[in-house]
Amino acid sequence: MKNRSLVSIEDFSKEEWLKILDLAEEFEKNPKQRILEGNVIATLFFEPSTRTRLSFESAASYLGAKVIGFSDASSSSVKKGESLNDTILTVSNYSDIIVMRHPREGSARYASEVSPVPIINAGDGANQHPSQTLLDLYSIRKTQGRLDNIHITFVGDLKYGRTVHSLVIALCNFNAIFHFVSPPELKLPSYVKRHIKDAKLRYYQYTDLTEAIPKTDILYMTRIQKERFSDPIEYEKVKNAYILRNSMLEEAKESMKVLHPLPRVNEITQDVDANPMAYYFQQAQNGVYVRQAILTSILGVK
Amino acid sequence: MSDLRKELKVSAIENGTVIDHIPAKSLFQVVKILKLNAIPNQILFGNNLQSQKYGTKGIIKVNDKYFEAQELNKIALVAPSATLIVIKDFTVVYKKNVELPKTIKQFVKCVNPNCITNNENIETKFDVHIDEEGQPKLRCNYCEKFTAKDNMVFI
């Protein structure tokens, strides 16, 4: 993985994903080691993202690396009309690796073509966000003790949610059984279903959340965004149908965990937070260890 | 229709390239893809000509011009049935069908308005795939979205 860019989850092999997860496990035991001392990591956030940026910066800082960058394009020369090519080439002179988020799809792939230093894609529009997928895999393995043969239920916006698409595609390598709960207008796109069919795996679709819960090992919740609906009446109809309440977890397996890429709005009620099945804040914490594993693998330190 | 009358519809050329069996609706896309509007050579166009195989067809004859195979294969996206005929001294030197290339660069726009190639000065790049109906579709090297045949816009 040394010196390679991570733009799409499929840039790395299944074996490489597992290596990153193993390494993340080591970092979880000992997250503060100064093994990246002397390295400079650039975080270029052309659109704001608190969670992803802070967890990358925290991951780098705990390992002793120096972090430079910007958290908003309006505070960079992009605002003056600088091209992505020029920004990347300039920043690559100042850093050993570039972590970037950009609102345009394909921006990270393009950056990886022009940059002399490796690029880590921290989200390019609605396209890819591979470190999220890896931290989801890490959270699944950690809570279930395995990645294979998991019953995973995805809830909410399955049409536009890039974390859902990437995780489904990744889990096609681990013999998962998929359950999809969404309003009809936000169903999983056919190109993602094609991956499931090609892997000869099973999937089931529901419109009622409670129906899927008893079989589930991992309940992956997502936010339904109002702006996805052309008809506001349709949104009003479905917005309350995909909310997880603590009372709905009575039928769940004891080992089941609830994941959410965050930010949460109202799709998981607060009374779920105290339930031992709620795992979304630990999931966010796992993001630091997984990003430490990604940074050190690409920088060739581990 | 006799062979003689067919010949007369579009006159023969001494040296150059003939692109035959272009679907009539794709003729002007072929002109655009090959940028025939920008070359000084003598060019003859025919369209909506009768074709035994396809009903109607278009034909283009370009005097004193030989294309790179790579260049001509681009038109397979809109005219997979097209035939290339290279002519020297009024004689057919060779004849072949166009072949769909594996990758496409530069001349097609990505259908995704939020793709980086539509927002910065970046050349497009695609892998060519075949859809369920046997039609070509292009996967953007950058945003990873597919551009279907009906959505292809030529730059």
3D architecture notes:
The complex is a heterodimer of chains A (302) and B (155). Chain A has 302 residues and is of the alpha/beta class. Chain A has 2 domains: 31-128, 3-Layer(aba) Sandwich (Rossmann fold), CATH 3.40.50; 131-284, Rossmann fold (3-Layer(aba) Sandwich). Helices cover 36% and strands 15% of the residues of chain A. In chain A, strands 7-6-5-8-9 form a 5-stranded parallel sheet. A 4-stranded parallel sheet of chain A has the order 2-1-3-4, with helices on both faces. In chain A, helix 4 (107-114) links the parallel strand 3 and strand 4. The longest helix of chain A has 19 residues, at 280-298. With 155 residues, chain B is mainly β. Chain B has 2 domains: 3-97, Aspartate carbamoyltransferase regulatory subunit, N-terminal domain (Alpha-Beta Plaits); 103-151, Aspartate carbamoyltransferase regulatory subunit, C-terminal domain (SH3 type barrels, Roll), CATH 2.30.30.20. Helix content of chain B is 12%, strand content 36%. Chain B has 3 helices and 9 strands. Chain B has helices spanning 3-9, 27-33, 69-73, and strands spanning 16-23, 43-51, 55-63, 83-88, 91-97, 103-105, 125-130, 136-140, 146-148. Chain B has a 5-stranded antiparallel sheet, with no helix packed on it. Chain B is globular, with a radius of gyration of 17 Å. The model of chain B has no long low-confidence stretch (mean pLDDT 90). The A-B interface holds A 8, 83-85, 102-107, 109-110, 124-128, 191 and B 110, 112, 114-117, 119-122, 140-146.
